[in-house]
From TrEMBL:
Pfam families per the UniProt record, alphabetical: NPHP3_N (PF24883), PNP_UDP_1 (PF01048)
Organism whose genome encodes this protein: Aspergillus piperis CBS 112811
Protein name: Purine and uridine phosphorylase
One GO MF term attached to the UniProt entry: catalytic activity
Domain Nephrocystin 3-like N-terminal: 312-483
Upper classification of the organism: Eukaryota, Fungi, Dikarya, Ascomycota, Pezizomycotina
A Gene Ontology biological process term: nucleoside metabolic process
Keyword Repeat part of the UniProt annotation: yes
Keyword rRNA-binding set for record: no
InterPro entries: NLR-like, NPHP3-like_N, Nucleoside_phosphorylase_d, Nucleoside_phosphorylase_sf, P-loop_NTPase
Keywords recorded for this protein, A-Z: Repeat
Entry superkingdom: Eukaryota
Domain Nucleoside phosphorylase: 15-225
């Protein structure tokens, strides 16, 4: 749910819950799943906040000053909350309102904006549009269980379901307590509810308005229903947060950035920033901006690899003391996982990325990654471009200001009228953006797929970025996956002195055992080779013993057995004469002449290219 509260900051809260009345704030506080300690007050901030967790979302509850109502005070507090809590994604304006009886709205019901909007009477205010237009629970909201726990809030019967209405809410600076005026406006515009704060909020904060009906906006106004109506509105807000995934909220733009998109480049609407930093609203991104950096879809590659992970595998890496020291304890800035070709390093990398996303000790620290692949001629230019794009996306979503140099470089090389960057330009841009986002975690898989000079250049770059302070890593962190040695005999340790190393050689055997068992079981369903269970067990054991820690070798042997063996005797012969290593496997394939094996060999050449691009070229010439 929440991370340790001792390290909470204003940047850790993503949802604002704004109230106008003390009774509304009390209802909101009562429905928090967890109350968090107060944060230190910021300079010139006289507002009172309550901090908590609701269905996994970190929520800050703010209230208008006592006795103050209307759109203008709401606008002021919306602006202040947005500035004080820069990571807020959206707000909920939760409280009471006056309902329109002729529209079927009853005391204690909840009204929230629907999918249409219209202009209301001049002087009264404007109607509001909901960012989510579909009714929950078929138009009725089951809050009975919540209300029963807080029966003291009103005299209403909790046996009746709370009605939920979706439509227009009129908001303005005047109190509506005239039945004739209410009906006139409601009939003309289809109004369901009247209130006094939402219009001021909407211009300064992306938010959803939720109103519990405490009266009928007529001369019979009383406060008897305020407690109950506050609670029904708060219950709706709580249940709404229950169906919004926390990761979806983190992936949406911040409230500040949402407003920048609405107001375009009008810098007069933004707060002044210190020199050296550039406001988002003065840095115009068109739709093709990110695509001009690179069209490489790093997330798609990651998801494809993540789906290949078999249940129960790669856990050894997450539990490894060196990984825990690097990830959880920040004992050092970089970590290296080495292994033979085909030993499952890419799947381990995907697992590490998912683990870092789930358990990041810094909620707003990005996980930046790249999978190098010789088959697609990955090079340093593609790698740096992808890292630059991911950092840029992160800065945009966080509504974090770009440094002046960062903005100039991005506009120069990726703007609408751009220069084509060379590798030096890309390295400079990456260095600037990585300084702007100094807490990023980088995961680079398949570093040995790069040319030796490119790999050396990248490691040298990271050596200057990642550093230690005392016994802790400070700044960015780096996790590398590669073979033990590059072409030419050098290794990661050559360029990153004293880098901690985890080898897959002996650690992956249990994972390979799972892989062999699952692969053979799948093959037997599609194409049964034998009904001899003992032979199947022998196959599993022999493949494991001869695998030398390489998933790819195992995969190729299973392919060959299923393509070439028609009898149990042929299976036994194949198991007794398994090739040693990948190169011998490829050479055997080259010697086979018939069409079926030729097709298989072509399939294997794709994997051979992962082993060595030069071998592939030579083999194809043969």
């Amino acid at each position: 749910m929440s991370s340790p509260t001792s390290s909470l900051r204003h940047e850790d809260f993503t949802v604002a819950w704004i109230c106008a009345l003390p009774v509304e704030m009390a209802a909101a506080e009562a429905l928090l799943d967890e109350r968090l300690p107060d944060l230190p007050a910021q300079p010139h901030d006289n507002n009172t906040y309550t901090f908590g967790v609701c269905h996994g979302h970190r929520v800050v509850i703010a209230s208008l000053p006592s006795g103050v109502y209307g759109t203008n005070p709401a606008a002021v507090i919306a602006t202040e909350v947005r500035i004080r809590f820069p990571s807020l994604r959206f707000g909920l304006m939760v409280g009471v309102g006056g309902g329109v009886r002729d529209a079927g709205v009853r005391l204690g019901d909840v009204v929230t904006p629907g999918s249409t909007s219209a202009k209301a009477e001049s002087g009264l205010g404007v109607s509001l549009k909901s960012p989510c237009g579909k009714p929950l629970y078929g138009g009725y909201f089951s809050v009975s269980a919540i209300i029963r726990r807080y029966a003291k809030w009103g005299n209403a019967s909790v046996e009746q379901p709370c009605g939920i209405h979706y439509g227009l809410i009129a908001s303005g600076n005047m109190v509506v307590k005239d039945g004739k005026l209410r009906d006139k406006i409601a009939k003309k515009y289809g109004i369901l509810c009247f209130e006094m704060e939402a219009a001021g909020l909407m211009d300064n904060f992306p938010c959803l308005v939720i109103r519990g009906i405490c009266d009928y906006a007529d001369t019979h106004k009383k406060k008897d229903w305020q407690g109950y109506a506050s609670l029904t509105a708060a219950a709706y807000a709580k249940e709404l947060l229950a169906v919004i995934p926390t990761h979806s909220v983190l992936e949406t733009p911040t409230a500040a950035l949402s407003l920048d998109w609405q107001i375009g480049n009008d810098s007069s609407r933004r707060e002044p920033l210190s020199s050296g930093w550039v406001s988002k609203s003065r840095f115009a991104f068109d739709d093709d901006f990110l695509a001009r950096i690179t069209r490489y879809d790093h997330e798609r590659v990651h998801q494809r690899l993540s789906r290949k992970r078999l249940l129960g595998t790669t856990q050894w890496f997450l539990d490894h003391p060196e990984f825990q020291a690097w990830f959880s304890n920040r004992a050092y800035p970089w970590l290296w996982c080495s292994g033979k070709i085909g030993s499952g390093k890419s799947i381990i990398a995907a697992t590490a990325i998912e683990e870092a996303r789930r358990k990041s000790l810094q909620p707003h620290a990005p996980i930046i990654f790249f999978y190098c692949d010789v088959q697609y001629d990955s090079d340093l230019s593609q790698l740096l471009s992808s890292l630059i794009r991911q950092l840029t996306e992160f800065i945009i979503k966080r509504a974090q200001p770009f440094s002046e140099n960062g903005q100039k470089m991005l506009q120069r090389y990726f703007g609408s009228e751009r220069e084509v960057p060379d590798i030096d330009d890309l390295e400079d841009i990456f260095a600037i953006l990585s300084s702007d986002v100094s807490n990023a975690t980088y995961v680079i898989d398949g570093l040995d797929a790069l040319e030796q000079a490119d790999a050396r250049r990248l490691l040298t770059c990271f050596r200057s970025l990642c550093r230690t302070g005392g016994d802790k890593a400070i700044g960015p962190r780096l996790l590398i996956f590669s073979r033990e040695y590059f072409v030419g005999g050098t290794s990661v340790a050559t360029y990153l002195p004293k880098v901690p190393q985890i080898s897959t050689t002996y650690n992956v055997l249990q994972d390979i055992q799972v892989y062999i068992r699952e692969s053979i079981a799948d093959r037997m369903v599609l194409q049964p080779l034998t009904e001899d269970n003992r032979l199947i067990r022998d196959m599993e054991n022999i493949l494991l013993q001869e695998s030398s820690g390489m998933f790819l070798w195992v995969y190729l042997q299973i392919e060959v057995i299923w393509y070439t063996c028609a009898t149990e005797q042929e299976i036994r012969v194949a198991l007794a004469t398994l090739p040693k290593g990948l190169e011998e496997t490829y050479q055997r394939c080259l010697k086979r002449i018939n069409v079926t094996i030729f097709v298989l060999s072509e399939h294997l050449f794709g994997f051979a290219s992962v082993h060595d691009r030069f071998i592939v070229k030579n083999c194809r010439r043969q």
